[in-house]
């Protein structure tokens, strides 16, 4: 009880400390889903967000009505599930998060979602390119390795593509990596930073343990840890037993990424997040954010022989996933 009250007070305090000059409209597309709802809740608690715009093909206004009773300063609006509602939702947005799309069931890979999610993401990207071409777009819908290239192709076709403003959200891989390494090493995960590069599925996820606080991890311990980071999502899919994939941890990761972008937009320096980025050919790495999105893409840095093998395997799959996204938009504009 006491802890809950403290948390509440903290949010109150932060909400009042946000100034009007920090006004930011954030849109969530797929807001009534497993990720969309907790993600919207976390954004409602973020004092940097002044206006929260929620869209879903079903249930957006209900989620918005519920969240709008939370006593933080931001406004929350749920839009009607049609083209006009989507347009209004997107208009003037600074950040657009896209968790719309079906999640995995046990036994599925992220690529198995392609057929359904590719057209959902393409259509939402078209609307975003028209209504808010300057917004930062954060793609959560899987397979991220392919859905990010889909968005970029749509934006290119509309003549509004800015690689600095398009992001694939791979933050959850880094969140998992710091948690899992802390469990092995018995440390505080808050102090653990493990760079994870490449893509966001299976072997395309490449943790660089040699650049963490625990470079000496080797042998079976290392192999098990790398495997858990690469396939951590499967643990959740299996445990949910047909009811979907990671939603709560993903919401936290998505909210963290949005918060980093807002901090950078509001003038903070040195804000670094991992993201699946356009700069070096759709390869996730550590990216420094600024007011216009990507400021600096940090190099992968020194890797050991083991990690080089992981990178080689990653690139084989990643290239195929990227091409699949590009080809989809070419064949289905
Ligand atoms: P969900 O099925 O619970 O929610 C998806 C929501 O999208 C539903 O409310 C649905 O009505 C909505 N939707 C479907 N088509 C839409 C459209 N055209 N416009 C607007 N809304 C639409 O799924 P969940 O668990 O929220 O997952 C969403 C996506 O996120 C999945 O593709 C999943 O694979 C992905 N994901 C990504 C992660 C990452 O690390 N990037 C981690 C976990 C999941």
UniProtKB/TrEMBL annotation:
It catalyses: (S)-malate + NAD(+) = oxaloacetate + NADH + H(+). CDD domains: MDH_glyoxysomal_mitochondrial (cd01337). Its EC number is 1.1.1.37. This is Malate dehydrogenase. The active site is at residue 200. NAD(+) binds at residues 30-36, 56, 117, 140-142, 250. It holds the Pfam family Ldh_1_N. Homodimer. InterPro entries: L-lactate/malate_DH, Lactate/malate_DH_C, Lactate/malate_DH_N, Lactate_DH/Glyco_Ohase_4_C, Malate_DH_AS, Malate_DH_type1, NAD(P)-bd_dom_sf. Residues 170-328 form the Lactate/malate dehydrogenase C-terminal domain. Keywords: NAD, Oxidoreductase, Tricarboxylic acid cycle. Residues 25-168 form the Lactate/malate dehydrogenase N-terminal domain. PROSITE patterns: MDH. Signal peptide: none annotated. GO terms for biological process: malate metabolic process; tricarboxylic acid cycle. GO terms for molecular function: L-malate dehydrogenase (NAD+) activity. It is an enzyme of class 1 (oxidoreductase). The keyword Oxidoreductase applies. Substrate binds at residues 104, 110, 142, 176. Coiled coil: none annotated. It comes from the Eukaryota. Belongs to the LDH/MDH superfamily. MDH type 1 family. SUPFAM superfamilies: LDH C-terminal domain-like (SSF56327), NAD(P)-binding Rossmann-fold domains (SSF51735).
